Recover the amino acids of this structure.
């Protein structure tokens, strides 16, 4: 359509330009001839005598024989020798003869249907007389007719060729889009996340590259989901199997009337209780990690040192053989108190698990940075990048209780509150875990809390 419109505009412009140029050239030629005859009128009068309407002007004076010449009188008489009855002049030509107009140029049609003529009328030196020259427009119209036909044929041919070429270009240009569409439909049907071949460097190629990146993200997400299910099943199987064995022993002891010694029975019950606690913790960790966002996000101003004290008190009851040294400054965070307490508890549980009996765990809180140092063997360099991954357990930790989810929950809580967490080595040689959250040393004024994930606009303290 665009090419057709352009061809039409060009054709109309060319046709109009040629028509105007031909008409302008004809007008200039007729005007020049008429003025030439008018300037030679004195000699013409000497040759012909008094101008008579029945006299004919010799065409040799005009330099051509394709022009009809006549006289127009102010009294309304028109003299075209042998042609007067075919001419229908009006007041415009008579005004030139009367001296009220200097020139008249117009197109007239012969009275007997003999075609169109271009008529130029100029005044003469004879009062009340004007000279009119008329030339047929048939040659010009014939040229314009041929030009119009040629323009029409070539325009139609150009539109057809442009349409075919445009169809071919569009079909070839949309081939990558069709391939991308087919690949997307195939992925939706088969769930195979195979990447699409990328060709070229145009926008379609960029779209295919972005689509491949999306497929890679989907594949990674699906792999993480499968790994979560597999690891969760593996981690759940161990306490369930142990619990089942202990319960079967207790059941068999009751059914055979061979009661276990009180010490053995108490030991089995204590083991079952520990496994229940481990299973409950594991299920809670799985539920926490399975959702990207919490069901309800009740943000409030939380005093982090108080949350830290509660977490230390809880872990002290679990690990009475480990000493905790705490040094905490006041720090207020907009966030979820239970999530922060769970994260800090997991950090302290990890430190207590790796500290030897009688060891000391040093805990400090300064400007939103919680640092936990233990006196364990430390974290190997190869394990540092993977400490906060789900279900990751180093070779040394596989013989110890735990599922590898505690530090993952710490990282998730830090990210949810706009902070970060990292692992390193303590000066004493053990592990150092650092937990950072933005906040301020004083509580914010009352009002709707902001989302901590978007950062705290409190000022320089946020950088802590």
């Amino acid at each position: 359509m665009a090419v057709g419109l352009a061809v039409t505009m060009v054709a109309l412009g060319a046709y109009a330009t040629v028509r105007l140029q031909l008409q302008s050239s004809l007008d200039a030629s007729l005007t020049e001839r008429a003025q030439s005859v008018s300037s030679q009128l004195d000699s013409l009068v000497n040759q012909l005598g008094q101008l008579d309407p029945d006299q004919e002007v010799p065409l040799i004076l005009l330099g051509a024989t394709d022009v009809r010449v006549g006289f127009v009188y102010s009294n309304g008489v028109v003299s075209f020798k042998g042609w007067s009855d075919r001419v229908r002049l009006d007041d415009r030509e008579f005004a030139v003869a009367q001296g009220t107009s200097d020139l008249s140029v117009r197109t007239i049609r012969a009275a007997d249907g003999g075609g169109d003529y271009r008529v130029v009328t100029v005044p003469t030196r004879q009062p009340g007389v004007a000279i009119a020259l008329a030339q047929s427009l048939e040659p010009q119209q014939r040229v314009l007719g041929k030009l119009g036909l040629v323009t029409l044929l070539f325009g139609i041919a150009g539109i057809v060729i442009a349409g075919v070429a445009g169809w071919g270009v569009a079909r070839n240009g949309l081939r990558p889009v069709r391939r991308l569409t087919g690949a997307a439909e195939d992925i939706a049907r088969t769930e195979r996340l195979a990447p699409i071949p990328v060709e070229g460097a145009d926008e379609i190629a960029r779209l295919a590259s972005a689509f491949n990146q999306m497929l890679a993200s989907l594949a990674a997400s699906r792999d993480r989901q499968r790994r979560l299910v597999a690891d969760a099943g593996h981690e759940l199987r161990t306490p369930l199997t142990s619990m089942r064995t202990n319960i079967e022993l207790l059941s068999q002891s009751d059914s055979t009337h061979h009661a276990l010694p009180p010490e053995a029975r108490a030991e089995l019950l204590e083991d079952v209780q520990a496994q229940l606690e481990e299973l409950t913790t594991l299920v809670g960790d799985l539920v926490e990690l399975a959702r990207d966002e919490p069901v309800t996000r009740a943000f409030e101003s939380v005093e982090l040192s108080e949350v830290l004290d509660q977490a230390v008190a809880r872990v002290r009851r679990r690990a009475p053989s480990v000493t905790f040294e705490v040094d905490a400054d006041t720090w207020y965070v907009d966030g979820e108190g239970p999530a922060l307490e769970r994260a800090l508890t997991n950090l302290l549980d990890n430190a207590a698990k790796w500290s030897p009996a009688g060891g000391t765990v040093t805990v400090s809180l300064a400007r939103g940075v919680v640092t936990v140092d233990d006196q364990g063997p430390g974290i190997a360099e190869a394990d540092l990048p993977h400490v906060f991954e789900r279900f990751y357990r180093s070779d040394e930790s596989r013989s110890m209780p735990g599922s590898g989810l505690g530090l993952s929950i710490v990282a998730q809580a830090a990210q949810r509150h706009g902070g970060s967490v990292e692992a390193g080595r303590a000066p004493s040689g053990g592990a150092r875990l650092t937990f950072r959250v933005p906040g301020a040393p004083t509580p914010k004024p009352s009002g709707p809390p902001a989302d901590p994930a978007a950062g705290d606009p409190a000022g320089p303290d946020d950088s802590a």
Observations:
- Residues 452-464 have pLDDT under 50 and may be disordered.
